[in-house]
Amino acid sequence: MITFKYLITSALPYGSNIPHLGNIIGSVLPADVYSRFLKLDGKECKYVCGTDSNGTPIEVEATKHKVEPSEWVEKKHKEIKKLFDELNLDFDVYSRTDNKNHAEKTIEIYNKLKENGYIYRKDIEILYCPKCEKSLPDRYVKGKCPKCGAEGAKGDQCDECGKLFDSPKELIDYYCSSCKSRPKKKKSEHVFFKLSELEEEIKELLERKREKWPKTTIKITENLLKEGLRDKDISRNLKWGIEIPDKPGQVFYVWIDAPIGYISFSKEIGIEEWWKDEDTKLIQFMGKDNVPFHTVYFPAILKGTREGYVEPERVKACEFLNYGGGQFSKSNKVGVFLDDAMELYPSDYWRYALIKMYPGKRDREFTWKEFRKMINHDLNDVVGNFVHRTLTFTEKFFESKVPEPDLMERDKEILKAIDETEKKLRDTLGQKMEFNKSIDMVIDLARKTNKYITDEEPWKNKERQKEVTYTSLQVTKALSIYLEPFIPETADKIKKFLGINPEKLEQAKERLEPGHKIKGYEPLFEKISKKEADKYEEKFKEKNNEKEVEEMKKIPFDQFKELEIKTGKIKNVEKIEKSDNLYKITIDIGKEERTAVAGLKNYYSQEELKDKEVAVVTNLEPAKIMGVKSEAMVLAAVDNEKVSLLKTDKKMKPGTPVE
Prior knowledge:
- The chain is an alpha+beta fold.
- Among the domains are: 366-509, Orthogonal Bundle (Isoleucyl-tRNA Synthetase, Domain 1); 557-645, CATH 2.40.50.140.
- The longest helix is centred in the middle third of the chain and has 31 residues, at 368-398.
């Protein structure tokens, strides 16, 4: 039997500023949860990460604050590491990319690429600011995105749509981000990586991993490959970064050296050989904007060395967590950043809420209302209340000792749920990485046992006190283990209450022995008042006065009346070949049948849709989707990752107008 090694990485946080909540849920937190779970399940696992300390973002921020880049990096690295410690992120190593070890590894890989013929030089036009008297790579340039039209897009990538730019000159009406003046063009010799020659190998990698990578990862990688891979400029006219050994005055593009940090950091803890071990499973976490660097550029660089580096087994990319209707922004003071968050509430509040909000399939919005509900209802009212009731009964009825029970079938059902939860976690979290669903299963175990206590009424049904208390204590012990990857401080507190120290997932099935002494109890959580949540919503709302708040776009009533909406009944549902989420649906709308292409495969099975009554827009222009002519639109309510088809509350015949 093969024993795999699990190497976990998360996209390196920029050392230019403090990460916001979107950064946290996009990379370091899910990676931490997954790493903790694998270790809890007895797997050999290492989680490596560090501060991205090189390149344009650092120099831009240092210039803005009138300090040297080295001084800025030192300050921010310490701040970020301290905040990550407070959030209980359990790295096996957290390093930085501005150290000697990392520079040596980057240059070693560069030299190997050069030796293999994947490096060449070419004269290009770069931007130069006469006013600032310096060259303007990447984020030194801003402008309008040519793809989505977003203003203030950075010179290397648009934050709004994720579009990557080979040159800042691709921006419309570009300008120097420091002085806002229009830069000039000048010639400069740059170093290029022959990415185009590795395109077929990247396509083959995508096909091998198609069943293992999430749809977000696959879609972004496919789109990049459809455009055709172009050779990559890997040099920048900067002072801060890793100097290219045979090109003095230029440093490596930050997205070339940053992923190499995963290897150099591994070397720091003596596991560099894992990168060339076929039994290593490389699992990488990031937001969707970082996908190209992890599925195309970094794998291509490693393949170009011809040294047998492992391929990414899983590239777990998520959508964006937004705030206030848009993206988090430090410069515009939009959203909650980690330094603010850790001052407001305990780390487990943030860990729990962010995992619940994990934007796996589509962008989600952080709201204080939802945050408050999660803490008050799930943590306080379910977990906190359950543990409190259980330990109170133990103290009151049995002098804080585990009683000897005479179990009935109802008790055994609850104990069986402990074992079933362990099995489900191995599948849902260990295999599928479904973070929201996994934490929900653990909370549901506490919720189910809470109801069991209420139904059995041990406070007045003395004949059932032993069994209910014993059973509830076993669930409490299981929670102390199952909660550990998600909210470790809470898990540790429960373990201390129980006087135990389990270290393995399988120990959840082991029962507390009758007579075992419980150590005590204190409240696990405090509720968040509506007044407090409203205060923080006001405090962290967008404060950028330059950006006007647009009113909701309104349409005339006559324009709405042009829509023809009818009731329909689904007659047939077919899968569409080569599509991960689309069905071809045949709908009876009274006098005729219409075909609709609908993205419902992730939410409904074919059997669930068959004969379902729906609301249908019937007068849209036909469109061809994946080779299928779509003549109608099925209406549905969409709330983050929940989708529910609309229907009438009374039975209506197909074709009935909706007005």
